[in-house]
Design brief:
26% helix, 4-stranded antiparallel β-sheet, alpha+beta, 6-stranded antiparallel β-sheet
């Protein structure tokens, strides 16, 4: 497409590529203004659901009109059928690149990035727009034209956003019920479960994960397997961030952990609440200084935005697995049963009433902390309910490969510790992995992804054997010549 005209812009060069499409740098011939042109692959543009998600970014930007959201100039379709969006061209660095390059950021910088992101999303939530795929790759840092020396956060890729635009008269644009969408490192527990209604508090959780990663250098949950990672979001308490970064203030740690509550009702409720808590925590005294991590490269490399690629961050997955084993199951069950009291189980010592009094200077004996209250016993039975679109998928148990039923599937199982890993299989569709927590059960509705069929190849059968020649006929005996006829010489 180099040199072609898209809308009023001429394509100059390719700047990004992914599984769904490509991003080009373009320029307006008359005005000289540069723009980024995102083009969805022609084969995907005919999928109505994918095309709707692609244009959601333009709808969100047009609806919110915030300086922290990329400005969209135009959208449309090419003669080939491929759809495109022409948007503001950004020169800067993605937050994912910054973390890979610099490791944990200074506390003030991390809080400023999180506060700016919360402000942008508060504006989007006010318009009924939930991002649902917030991650460092979708946060872009550019020089702030209003404040020299400061960076402005731009929130990208509202592609799988849930739009609720009744105010504009356009109706709602929603994905199919039960479709699990997002990036597993940053998905909320309700997204991991495939809950029917995912609201603005899922963005609060994702921003809590990002802030944890900014100050600690890695997300709270890491795993080699997607199923195990989903289980950790649902049932494993995050390690307190001050264990990884002692320079955090207790106030900022409380802000992060409140955003990471498993139960949406116990979580920080709005981005406005999170923004106010961040500003208050920024004024709190800090803890011990954290040694500065060496940069992983000499300088930042300016990048143009592209949102077709997935998160490319690499982390050590063994360390968090060892650390997560320190959390006993009773704390997880207590978190589910006690709701808001789960914070006290995870963050003992943060409350002035629960902390033991300091020991006098003359003594070396420290009073022991009171033992945690025993958790209520788990339920005797759990209910596992799994539905799929389309129905009739086989429910396969991963540990032994056994088929235990078909969807719609519903059974009552004995409660236990741990999880049961399973998958749905249906001819013509991709296998869908899922994880069932054995202490609470699930009620899932999953949309299966249809496999793309390759064009049928003309079958070539075995070459036909040549027809057998008929056996030679025996020569007829010549009849004796009649005396009246002449004999041929």
């Amino acid at each position: 497409m180099i040199g072609e005209i898209v809308g009023n812009y001429r394509i100059l060069k390719l700047i990004g590529e992914g599984g769904m499409g490509v991003v080009y740098l373009a320029e307006h011939p008359g005005m000289g203004r540069r723009a980024a042109v995102k083009v969805l692959h022609a084969g995907l543009a005919h999928n109505q659901e994918i095309a709707t998600r692609f244009f959601n970014e333009a709808r969100a930007a047009n609806s919110v009109r915030h300086p922290g959201i990329v400005e969209v100039f135009d959208l449309g379709a090419l003669p080939s059928g491929a759809t495109y969006i022409i948007m503001e061209f950004l020169e800067g660095e993605s937050l994912a690149s910054r973390i890979r390059r610099a490791g944990p950021l200074p506390i003030a910088e991390a809080v400023d990035i999180a506060a700016q992101t919360a402000e942008v999303l508060a504006a989007a939530h006010a318009k009924g727009i939930v991002h649902r795929d917030l991650k460092p790759d979708n946060l872009f840092l550019v020089p702030d034209p209003r404040a020299p020396g400061r960076e402005l956060v731009k929130v990208l890729d509202f592609g799988i956003a849930k739009l609720n635009l009744q105010s504009s008269g356009s109706g709602g644009v929603r994905t199919r019920t039960g479709a699990v969408m997002g990036t597993p490192l940053y998905m909320s527990p309700e997204q991991c479960r495939g809950t029917r209604e995912v609201d603005l508090r899922t963005d609060v959780y994702a921003l809590g994960i990002i802030l944890y990663e900014l100050v600690c250098g890695r997300p709270p949950f890491l795993s080699e397997g997607q199923g195990e990672l989903i289980h950790m979001h649902i049932a494993v308490a995050p390690e307190p961030p001050r264990k990884l970064n002692p320079s955090l203030s207790p106030a900022l740690e409380r802000v992060i952990l409140a955003a990471l509550e498993k139960d949406p009702a116990a979580r920080t409720q709005t981005m406005g609440d999170l923004l106010r808590a961040l500003r208050a925590a920024a004024a709190a005294p800090a803890g011990k200084a954290l040694p500065t991590a060496p940069n992983r490269s000499a300088a930042a490399v300016p990048l143009a935005q592209t949102t077709f690629s997935a998160t490319a961050s690499a982390y050590d997955v063994e360390a968090p697995r060892r650390r997560s084993a320190r959390w006993p199951l009773f704390a997880l069950v207590g978190a589910a049963a006690l709701g808001g009291a789960a914070f006290a189980l995870r963050s003992s010592g943060l409350s002035s009433s629960a902390a033991p009094p300091p020991a006098p200077a003359a003594t070396t004996v420290t009073p022991a902390a009171p033992p945690p209250a025993p958790a209520p016993p788990p339920p005797a039975k759990i209910v596992v309910s799994i539905a799929s679109q389309p129905a009739g998928a086989r429910v396969v148990r991963e540990r032994d490969g056994a088929d235990i039923g078909v969807t719609p599937f519903k059974e009552s199982w004995p409660a236990a510790a741990g999880v049961e890993k399973m998958r749905l299989e249906l001819d013509g569709y991709r296998p869908q992995p899922l994880v069932v927590p054995l202490d609470r059960g699930v009620a899932l509705e999953l949309a299966l992804t249809k496999l793309e069929r390759e064009p049928a190849k003309r079958a070539r059968g075995p070459a036909k054997a040549p027809a057998k020649a008929p056996p030679p006929r025996a020569p007829r005996p010549e009849a004796p010549a009649r005396p009246s006829e002449p004999v041929p010489l």
